Amino acid sequence: ALWIIPRMVQGMGLQMVIRRQGKQHLSPIEQQYVTPVELITGFRPCQWLVGYEWSKNPSNDPLWLTASICYDATDLKLASDLRDRSDVFAIPALNVDVGTFDQMAQALHYHMFQLVLIANNGAYGGSNAHVPRGEAFQRQVFHTHGQPQATISFFEIDDIKGMKAIIQQQDAQIKAQAEAIQSQDARLKPLEAAAVIPPIEE
Question: What are phi and psi of 16, to 5 degrees?
Fold first, then answer.
């Protein structure tokens, strides 16, 4: 897949930056081209994080966008690594198993605590977006089902500052909970050590 990133460069006007996003995990359809002769192979040498400068204040952190192609989004190690690094996780897909990817989008937006967007091919439908906020009915931004059809959906993140503040607040709570658990473990270790010291025989 390609990242096509528009940038306004002073003295040069509108410029397009293109970056290639690799794919490591092949789908069942792609597996047909692996045996008996390996015509394609999984290859993801890097994971791009694209910063969107949403504020004129240079001290504000960019909105970080990242993406995984189709089955790469099922890699929980990648999702865990990206959790504290990205704000929007996009998944372009050519996926027949629409139901599984629907559930995956819901699970990932909880696990990663960020906006998760699936853009599936119109041949199968099942594009959707979930954002971590409010009640359950507020979290699903859109959901497109049915096939075969060509559908274009637009949505806007109207409060980027607020969304990033919620994510940072959640991260701070998780960090505080982790520190509390570590502190509790540190207090328990001396007691455990004392419990296993055998009595001294006179």
Answer: -110, 125
* Tens digit of each residue's pLDDT (9 = 90 or more) over 58-100: 888 999 999 999 889 989 899 989 988 999 999 998 888 888 8
3-state secondary structure the chain: CEEEEEEEECCCEEEEEEEECCECCCCHHHHCCCCCCCCCCCECCCCCCEEECCCCCCCCCCEEEEECCHHHHHCHHHHHHHCCCCCEEEEEECCCCHHHHHHHHHHHHHHCCCEEEEEECCCCCCEEEECCCCCHHHHEEEEECCCCCCCCCCCCCCCHHHHHHHHHHHHHHHHHHHHHHHHHHHHHHHHHHHHCCCCCCC
The pLDDT of residue 81 is 92
What distance lies between CA 90 and its chain's CA centroid?
7
Which string of b and e fits 164-183 if b means at least 16 CB within 10 Å?
bebbeeeeeeeeeeeeeeee
Q: Amino acid identity of 74?
A: T
Whether the per-residue pLDDT at 202 is higher than 70: the answer is: no
